Amino acid sequence: MSGFQVVVLWSDVLVWLLVAAGLGVGVLIAKSPPLLAAWRRVGANRVGMASATVLLAFIAVGLLDSLHYRLQLDGKPGQPAVYAIEVLSVLDALAAPLRTRNEKTYSAPFATRLYAKETIDLPGQGTVRDYPRLKYGGQHLGEREDEVAADAGFTAFKAGVLAFVGWLGVFGVVAAVNRKKRPNLKLRDAAFAWDAVLLTLLAMLLAVVPLFWLAGQYHVFGTDKVGQDVLYQILKSVRTGLIIGLVTTLVMLPMAVLLGIVAGYFRGWVDDLIQYLYTVLNSIPGVLLIAAAVLMMQVVIDSHPQWFSTAAERADLRLLALCFILGITSWTGLCRLLRGETLKLRELEYIQAAQAFGVSSWRIILRHILPNLMHIVIIALVMDFSGLVLAEAVLSYVGIGVDPTMTSFGTMINNARMELGREPAVWWSLAAAFSAMFVLVLAANLFADAVRDAFDPRAA
Amino acid sequence: MLAYIVRRLLYAIPILIGVNLITFALFFVVNTPDDMARMQLGVKRVTPEAIEKWKAERGYDKPLFVNADAAGLATVTDTIFFDKSARMFAGQFGRAEDGRDIAREIASRMGPSLAIALPTFVLGLFVAVSMALLLAFFRASAFDFWGVVLCVAMMSISGLFYIIGGQYLISKIWRLVPISGFGDGLEAWRFLILPVLIGVVSGIGSSTRWYRTIFLEEVGKDYVRTARAKGLPETVVFFRHILRNALIPILTGVVVVIPLLFMGSLLTESFFGIPGLGSYTIDAINAQDFAVVRSMVFIGSVLYIVGLILTDISYTLVDPRIRFE
User: Cα distance from B31 to chain A (closest Cα, Å)?
Assistant: First the structure.
C-alpha cells in the first residue's frame, strides 16, 4: 500500500474550475464599487452570514471529496504497478473509520446489537437465536452494554467542552483583530456580521465535534441494509448535491446570458429565433424532457462500456450529463428575464451615446449592458441552487437521476423508502438524509434571500 | 378577440412542430432504433435477427425521413418521422411495449389524475392565498416574520419527505386512511384525502411566500393610499381593494398550470398507487417504454401551450385595458 495514482474525474475538474471562477469573480467584485457595496450588504445581513457559514462547511466537505486517487495494490517488486479499481477521495481517507467499519446489515443509531436476529453458537450451550453484537458499534464497552447512554453522553460532553475551547480560541482571534482595526467598535456593531458567523460556528462545532467523536465508537446515524455507516453516506452525498446545484448553473449561465442579451440587443430575426427556441424548450414539461433526455443518455452510456475504465468514471459522467440536461432545460427562465431587461437598457441614453460614438455592438454589450445585468445573474444563480438540490432527490427517486451506484440524497432516500414498512421501522437512513438535505437547502434558501435583498434594487 | 385566439392557435403550430422535432431528435437521432432494440432485448438475446424483428414489429425498420423505395406520397409518409412523430398531431400515439393502445390508455387514466390534481390545485390555491393575505395584513409584525420563516423552512423540505412522512404517520401509525390504491366512483374519496392533503401542504411554503410579496406590492400602491385617506377602515381596504387587485396577477399566473393538471403528478401518483397519467409516465420511464414517454412529452407540450393561450385570454378578461391587435 505504498503509492497511489491521482484520478481526475471530469466533475473534479469542473468543481475546481468553479472554485477558480469564484475567486476570479471575487477579484472582479473587489474592483467594482457597486457590486462590492452589494456584497457588503450581504455581509452585514446576520441571517445571510449565518447561512453562508453553514454552506461553507458543506462546500468544504464537497471539496475534500473532489480530490480522487486510486491506491496501488501490493504487487511483487519489478512488476508494473497495479492500482485498485476503487476510486477514493481525500474525504474517504479522512473518514476511513466510517468507510471501513461495516456491519452485517441494519443497526439503529447508537445500537450495540444488530437489527435482525441470528442463530449464534454459544460454546457449551448449543445454539440460540438472538440479536448478535455489532462488530464495531459500541465495541469498546465490552460487557457493559447497558451503559451506552452514559458513555455516549460523557463522550459528547467531553467533545463539546473541547469544541467550546476551540471556539473560544477563534473568538479571541476575531475579537483581537477587530479591536486592532477599529479600537472603539464592538464586535456586534461591526459592518460585517461577525457575531452571526461566530454564533453559527459555535453551534456547528458543538454539533459536529461530538458527532464525529462518537462516530469513532458508535454508528451515530445507524447503518443501512449492507451495514454501511449512514453518516458516511451523508458525507458522500454532499458532493453530489453541490455538483448538481453548482455545475448545472455553470452549464446554464453562458447560454442564458449570451442568448438573452443578444435577443434583447439585436432584436429582429435574432430575437424571433431565440424566442422561438426558448418557447419550444419551455413548452415541454421539465420532468418529461429530463426523463426523455436521461433515458437517451442511459442508452448511449450502456452501449459504450469501453469509454469508462472504472465504475466511478461512469457514474461521474452520468452525473455530469444530468447536470448538462438540467442546464439545458432550465436556462429559459433566466434568458427571458435578461432579454426583457436588455430591451429596457438598450433604450437608455448612455447606450445611445455609445452607439453614436460608433462603439461596436459587442463592446457595448460587454462594457455597458452585461455589468448592469450582473445583479439578475447573481440572484438567479443563488436562487436556483436549492431547487436543484431538491430536484436531484426527486429525479433519483423517479429513476432518472444520478447513477444508482453514486451516493446521493436521492439514492439514499430511494434505497430506504421501503424500510419504513418493516417492523420495527428502519427510520434512520431516511431521517438522516432528509435532515441533512433540509439543513443544506435551508441554508441555501436563506443565503439566497440575503443576496436577493442586497442586490435587487426594487427590494431596497 | 376571436381573431386573436385564432392567431394564437396558429402560432402554436410552429412551436408544436419544434417540440416534435426535438423529441424526434432525442428518440431517433441521438439513439438509433438499433440502440433501443438492444436496450429492450437485453444483452443476452441480442442478435442481428432479433433486432430486425423487434424493429419490424414496432415499425422502426423504415427510413427516418425519406423512403426512397416507396412511390408517390408514400416517400414521405412511409417513414419513421411520419409514423411516429407527425401522427401525434392527429392523436395517434401508436402502441406501448405491452401492446396496448396509448391513446386509449391516456383517455382512461386522465380521470384519476384529475381527481387528485384538481382538488389539490383548488385547495392549495385557497389555503396559500388566505395565508398570504393574513401575513400581509399583519405585515412587519412578529406574526409575519415567523410566518415567513415557517414558509422558508417548509420550502426547504423535500417533497419526498412530505409524502413518505405523511404516509407513515397517517396511514401506518394512525391507520386513518388506506396507505395507497384507488377505488371506483365515490368510493375513491378515502384514497384521495391523503394525497390531496400532502399535495396542499407541500406546496404551501413557496406559494404563500410568493403571494405575500404580490400582496405587499399592492399595499404600496396609490389607490390604497387614496382608500385610506378617505377614511376606510384597514379591513375594508384590505379585503375589498387589495385582495381584489392582488388576485389578478395571482389568478392569471396560475391559469397556465390548469391544463397541465390532466398530466397528474409523477410523485404523488406513484407513491399512492393511483392509476393516472403520472404513474403511467413513471412506469414507462422505468420500463424504458420510449413510445409512451414520447407521447407524454407531446401531450404535455400541447397542454402547456393551451395554458399559455388561456393565460393571455384571462388577462383580457380581468383587465379591460389590455387589447390585442
Answer: 7
